[in-house]
Specification:
- This protein is mainly alpha-helical.
- About 65% of the residues lie in helices and about 0% in strands.
- It has helices at about 1-20, 50-74.
- The chain is flat, with a radius of gyration of 29 Å.
- The model has no long low-confidence stretch (mean pLDDT about 75).
Length: about 70
């Protein structure tokens, strides 16, 4: 009987402490409200240059793979 109570107490304590560790604060205010004078959400990081590099690299990779497949067929 004592061991059952100990096991139940341990399970209860585990569940209580596990539940308390999951609680979190609300996310911070992203800012950027109308007339606030703050920058846009995300910091205004530029993605245009990276997108062009990604597209060029993808194009080169696709051409390379198609050339390899053509050589394997002949």
């Amino acid at each position: 009987m004592k061991t059952n109570m100990r096991i139940l107490l341990l399970i209860f304590a585990f569940l209580v402490f596990n539940t308390l560790s999951v609680l979190a604060d609300a996310p911070p205010d992203p800012g950027g409200g109308p007339g606030g004078g703050d920058g846009p959400v995300g910091g205004g990081s530029p993605i245009g240059g990276s997108a062009i590099v990604f597209l060029i690299m993808s194009l080169i990779y696709g051409i390379r793979k198609s050339i390899i497949r053509v050589k394997q067929c002949h």
